[in-house]
Amino acid sequence: MTSKNTDTEKDREERLKGESSASGLRSWLWHRAKPYAPPWIVTGVVGVAGAGGHVLWSGSAAAGVGLTLASVTLTGAAWWAGKNAGPQRRLHSAITVAAGSGWVTGAALAGPLPDLFLIGGATAALSWNLRQTLRSTERTADPSGSLLEKVGLAKAAIKNAKVEPNRVTAGLVLEPGEQTNDDVTRALPRVASALDVPPTAVRYLPDPDSARRGELVVVPVDMLADTVRWEEEGPSHPGGSITDPLVIGVYDDGSPLLLWLPGDKEAGRNATHVLIAGMTGSGKGDGALNLMTEILSRTDVIFWLSDPKGFQDFRPLLPGIDWAVEGGTPTEVMIEAVKAVIPARTQWLGQHSYRQWEAAAAQRQTDPKHSCRTGGTPCGCEGLPFHVAWFEEAGVSLGLLGDDAFNSIANLARSAGMALVVSLQRPSHDQLSTTTRDALGSRLCFGVPNAMAASFMLPDAVIDAGAAPERWANRRPGYCYLITPGIPEERYSSPGRTRWFTDTATSLMETVAQWAARNGARVDPVTARAATGVAGSAYTDRSQPDTGTGPTEEPGMDDPSTGTGPAVDPEDKDIDPEADLPGPQPGDDAPLFGEPAGRKPSPDQARELFAQALDEFASEGRMVIGPKDFMDWCDTHNLSRSWVSLRLKDAAVDGRLEPTSQTGRWRIVPALTPA
Asked: With the C-alpha atoms ordered 181, 187, 189, 190, is the resulting torsion angle positive or negative?
């Protein structure tokens, strides 16, 4: 490189300091004229060809036909050969060839036309000289080279550039054998620097069928900088179906950020679950509210929510939610209920000839094609609404239940017309099992602290295309990437932003919840029966969505405050007032030194007490239990935890308990309840 530069400088110096003789001047003029000589040489050749043709074919009709066909053929060939050139160069070339070949044909048949030749030939040659001069001027104006040269892609070619409002898309064709799509991916930060735009404004979408072709996308203006308040627009489609797109924000080019939960066989879109993640302060909570309010504003979906934070963000929406629980054991019960609901709903869909859930499944079944009866008569069964099970701050629940608590739900729920939404700060391997994470097909990724955290949420291809949520961290709340079925894959690396919820949004959120309570779907008998069969009173006595309060009992004859019933404590109602008091038992008095404190029940009494304890847990809605739940009970009745563990296993054998996915945890089988 140094030697080449030195030779160039010497050549330039010799030209500047060369002798001023006539020969030196001629040499300099010829050196300057050489780049512009080819058009004139070609013009001269065309003139000689026309004169020679006149000598050979003057007056020949056959030669006239042949020359005409040759002229048309050459013009078409020039147009075809210029398909990879710019439109101006292609048109210029075709016109020049058409004019030259037409003149040769006319000169051969009718004789040379000197005036026409001199004027037309000179004009054609000068037009190419002018084009050459302008091209040299452009190179001189940009001595550092083109954009692709600056970023190390000098041999790449730009094809089929498309300019849209705030979006430029250019096809790239790289040098065969020397450049690959990976080279463009590594050059993206330099492209952003050359264009003076944010790094996330430049993306590259490789062609899956080629290692050297793709599309470079540049969004020059960040349209996400202006925050949009949710209450300014509210839900996008109130009263619509869950099959309609859920609008949760906008992309950086201004187009809507869309998400679908159910599948659509006609559109070729699969049903999906959603994983939401982002660091503290990244706007994950507002993103969740955008999605939740969209779901609650539809008429054919029921919603279950688990939130260990005590509904801190979602409390205004509780009236529209069918079942809402906090963390710990209630969440454990909800997970077991969801597991039981899945096969019940799948069976209903199969009986009614639905290969996957669709909007018609939520309506009363009056179509003979979807009848569970034989003979093709409509069954009239009540519909099956879509079902969303949302687990907020799932990292807290997974810390108690294990990282595979959602495995079976994530793998099976889509076929049952259900969507699982899991929201947590960091879906790492120690938080969420790889099996569950892979089954959550949609990802809503907000800002993360580093590239490692981004890799847990975004596919490698999306990161290679330019997606980098770690560049925002929590400095741009609401900025996100959305990976979901139903949107083009080239959109995956485009950043979006969800809408902002302020304190003034609370009243509109409450309105949405009340609207959902009055107009939204009611839980279907299939789902209710399956949930009740697992959760018992934890589900039947849940807060009612239309009032936000639990069921109340009518004042009865047994209410002491009315003065109309017996003023007896419920725990004493079975005592016979006429029976003799039992005799003293060992341990009833204060124990002597070295004796056990309190009376230990007999084996039969202990088993009876244990059965009563199970009934009490069930009545309280604590349907998932283990030995640790009996600690106070053991102290009261002077029984050991090992004895309780044995009784739990015996109860499972007897059918009173069912094992859960967590070791040492058991699910109480509720007593029979009315359907």
From this structure: negative
Higher pLDDT, 340 or 129: 340
Which residues neighbour 205 within 8 Å (Cβ) at sequence distance 6 or greater? 214, 215, 217, 465, 489, 490, 493
Calpha distance 488→472 (Å, rounded):
24
Chain CA centroid to CA 308, Å:
25
In the β-sheet with 213-218, what is the strand arrangement from edge to edge?
157-164, 167-173, 213-218, 202-206
Per the document, the length of the chain is 675
Do 275 and 456 touch, CB atoms closer than 8 A? no
In terms of phi and psi (left: phi > 0; alpha: psi -120 to 50; beta: otherwise), the region of 505 is alpha
600-675 has the same fold as 147-218: no
**87 CB neighbour count, 10 Å cutoff:** 8
pTM: 0.65
Which parts are annotated binding residues? 278-285
CA dist., res. 296 & res. 240, Å (int):
10
The enclosing H or E element of 497 equals strand 496-498
CATH of range 230-347+385-540; options 3.40.309.10, 3.40.50.300, 3.90.79.10, 3.40.190.10: 3.40.50.300
Any residues with CB less than 8 A from the CB of 5 and at least 6 apart, and which? none
Instruction: Decide yes or no: CATH 1.20.1050.10 for domain 600-675.
Output: no
* Cα atoms in the Cβ-side hemisphere of radius 13 Å centred on 655: 2
What percentage of residues in the chain have a pLDDT greater than 70?
Answer: 79
- What phi, psi does 25 have (nearest 5°)? -65, -40
> How far separated are the first and last CA of the chain, in Å rounded?
87
Domain edges within the chain: 29-141, 147-218, 230-347+385-540, 600-675
Q: With a cut of 70, say whether residue 297 has pLDDT above it.
A: yes
3-state secondary structure 543-575: CCCCCCCCCCCCCCCCCHHHCCCCCCCHHHCCC
pLDDT digits (tens, 9 = 90+) for 551-564: 434 333 344 343 44
Q: CB neighbours of 256 closer than 8 A, spacing ≥ 6?
A: 236, 245, 247, 249, 250
As a whole number of angstroms, the distance between CA 102 and CA 108 comes to 10
Residues 344 and 415 sit within 8 Å (Cβ to Cβ): no
The most confident of the ranges 91-100, 157-166, 513-522 is 513-522
Annotated binding-site residue numbers for ATP: 278-285
Q: Which helix (H) or strand (E) holds 276?
A: strand 274-277
147-218 topology per CATH: Gyrase A; domain 2 (3.30.1360)
The four Cα atoms 575, 578, 584, 587 give a dihedral, to 10 degrees, of: 10
pLDDT greater than 60 at residue 569: no
Mean pLDDT on 254-273:
93
Residue 476 CB contacts under 8 Å (≥ 6 apart), including other chains: 224, 283, 447, 497
Q: Would the pLDDT of 581 be above 60?
A: no
Residue 164: CB partners within 8 Å, gap ≥ 6? 253
Query: What are the φ/ψ torsions at residue 136 (nearest 5 degrees)?
Result: -65, -35
Strand partners, 237: none
Report how far residue 372's alpha carbon sits from residue 544's, in angstroms, rounded to the nearest whole number.
31
Report yes or no: 214 and 184 within 8 Å, Cβ to Cβ.
Answer: yes
Q: Report how far apart, in Å, the C-alpha atoms of 443 and of each of 135, 200, 363, 408 are.
A: 48, 18, 30, 19
Mean pLDDT of 309-333: 93
